[in-house]
Every structure is written in structure tokens, then in C-alpha cells.
From TrEMBL:
Domain named HTH tetR-type: residues: 27-87
Gene3D superfamilies according to UniProt: Tetracycline Repressor, domain 2 (1.10.357.10)
Pfam family, one: TetR_C_24
Protein name per Swiss-Prot or TrEMBL: TetR family transcriptional regulator
Keyword DNA-binding attributed: yes
Length: 214
């Protein structure tokens, strides 16, 4: 069934509750540095951000930053890797549901909500990738490929089970992921949509796009 159920939203909420963006940085100092870098990258862009901006935002000296991170590119990489790891953990958690239709509803609902609720992080990790070194960019690219493989595998499973009618699985995979990712670009808190409402809407849209019964 393509209808989004209360069970789907509860499952999505459980997945989201288990994701901790900041788990990789256990100390208050590390979190202050990464948080300041995130805010500056979002406000000024990577190239417009200096280590001085990050130091000021974190309340530390520029020299103190080097104890934890060698460069602002390393900070961007840490954020990008963590953000993409979270996305991969999310889709994997949703895809374990045996029923492919239910799994897809949970996946799209939670993926969309995460990109709305963590829009600042999502914007930075999606739109500043060009500033990463080639080696770091490849690490992030592999995480993206892993995420795509999980979603594509779920769609393949749904097609095989007769739950989805999809003429182009690769294209459908890109479309499902793009629905959630693009939310980070335009979502504004206090606007006409809440993260929950968007998650419900997009889960329903994805169901229709994949040919799930109403």
C-alpha cells in the first residue's frame, strides 16, 4: 500500500532518534570547533571561511585549532564524511523492514525529515564537496555510492515482489534520493511545511512514483 501509516512514521522517528551527528566528536572543544566550522561554511561558503572565523566562532585561538584539525579542509571532510555516514546508516536501518513498500515509506519519511531538521549540515556536505581533496572526495563518493546501492537494492526487491512498478530502477533511485536531499536547499523553519509534514508528503509522492498501490 502507498498510504503512509502511523506505524511508518513511528519507525522513522525511531531511526532518527538513533542518529547522533556529533558522536564522532566526543569532547566539548571538538564540538565547538566543528560547530563553528559548520556555521561559517553555511554562512560564507568554504572558500569564504578562514581559520580565524572558525577560531572566533569556537572561542579558541587559531593555534588551538591545529591541535584537533590540520586544516579547514580537514574540518569540511570530517563534516562531509559524518553527514554521509549518517545518511547511509539511515537508509540501511529503513531497508531492513521485510516488506519493501513499508521499508520505502520509512526510508523516504526519515530521509526527508533528516534533511529538513539538519538542513545546515546537509547543505554544507552536499554543496561544498568541490573543495575536498581528491582523496577525501573519493571517500565521500564511496559513501554516496553505498547509499545509492541500498536504495537501489530496496527498489529491486520491491519490483521482484510486485510491490513497485518501475521501468528504470537506476533513475528511480536517483529520484527517491533527490527528493530528500533537495529539501536542505530550500527548507525554512517556520514556513508552510514542518519536517514531519514534508516527510509524510514525500513518502506518499515516492510511493506513487514507484507505482505502489494507493
Amino acid at each position: 500500500m502507498g498510504r503512509v501509516t502511523a506505524e511508518s512514521t513511528r519507525a522513522g522517528e525511531r531511526i532518527l532518534a538513533g542518529l547522533d551527528l556529533w558522536a564522532e566528536w566526543p569532547t566539548a572543544t571538538q564540538r565547538a570547533i566543528v560547530g563553528a566550522a559548520l556555521e561559517s561554511f553555511a554562512e560564507r561558503g568554504f572558500h569564504g571561511t578562514s581559520l580565524k572565523h572558525i577560531a572566533q566562532g569556537s572561542g579558541l585561538s587559531t593555534a588551538a585549532l591545529y591541535v584537533h584539525f590540520a586544516s579547514k579542509e580537514e574540518l569540511l571532510f570530517a563534516l562531509s564524511r559524518r553527514g554521509h555516514t549518517i545518511a547511509l546508516e539511515l537508509v540501511r536501518a529503513a531497508a531492513v523492514e521485510p516488506d519493501p513498500a513499508a521499508a520505502m515509506r520509512v526510508l523516504v519519511y526519515s530521509f526527508t525529515r533528516w534533511h529538513a531538521e539538519q538542513r545546515t549540515t546537509a547543505r554544507v556536505v552536499q554543496y561544498e564537496q568541490g573543495a575536498l581533496t581528491a582523496a577525501h572526495a573519493e571517500v565521500v563518493a564511496e559513501l554516496r555510492r553505498d547509499t545509492e546501492r541500498v536504495v537501489r537494492g530496496l527498489i529491486d526487491r520491491g519490483v521482484a515482489a510486485g510491490a513497485f512498478t518501475v521501468p528504470d530502477v537506476r533513475g528511480a533511485t536517483a529520484a527517491v534520493l533527490s527528493l530528500g536531499i533537495d529539501v536542505a536547499r530550500w527548507f525554512v523553519p517556520g514556513g508552510p511545511w514542518t519536517p514531519d509534514a514534508l516527510g509524510l508528503l514525500y513518502a506518499g509522492l515516492a510511493g506513487r512514483m514507484l507505482g505502489m498501490p494507493a
